[in-house]
Amino acid sequence: MRAKSAVDRRFRAVVFGVIVFLFAAAVLFTTAISFAPYQIVIGCGAVLAASAFLLWLLYGTFYELRDDYLYCRSGPFVEKIGYDQIKYLGYSENMLSSMALSSKRIEIRQYGKGFVNGTIMISPENREIFLGYLRQRCHCLDKAS
């Protein structure tokens, strides 16, 4: 089962706002200051690369239930979490930086890792259904989960 990430409107607005700001700043700087042509090309390339990265995060974030592990991808970032390593699953609205693009999240804690590096937040579009399927595959959950 594969689920795209839910995306909050404010997150989407921030991403597109940053992209517009980068392009506007590039245009203003190149017209206000006389740059050499190679500097303009480098600047435009940097703006395009940053914009492509932000769009990759926005549209390339998904979660997939595979045979032995949960596969999470957010742009270039990948996390594989074995079902036997998951000790806690629950709903969260914690805004810690993670592979989630929405404030309505699923918190996943892993055995043998601390809170910082052993907790991941995901935000599938339909988190109730996704959490139900994920719980079915996790046989090592703590009783409080």
From TrEMBL:
Pfam families: bPH_4
BP-aspect Gene Ontology terms: bacteriocin immunity
Membrane-crossing segments per the record: 12-34, 40-59
Boundaries of every Uncharacterized protein YyaB-like PH domain copy: 61-138
Keywords of this entry: Membrane, Transmembrane, Transmembrane helix
The protein's name in its UniProt record: PH domain-containing protein
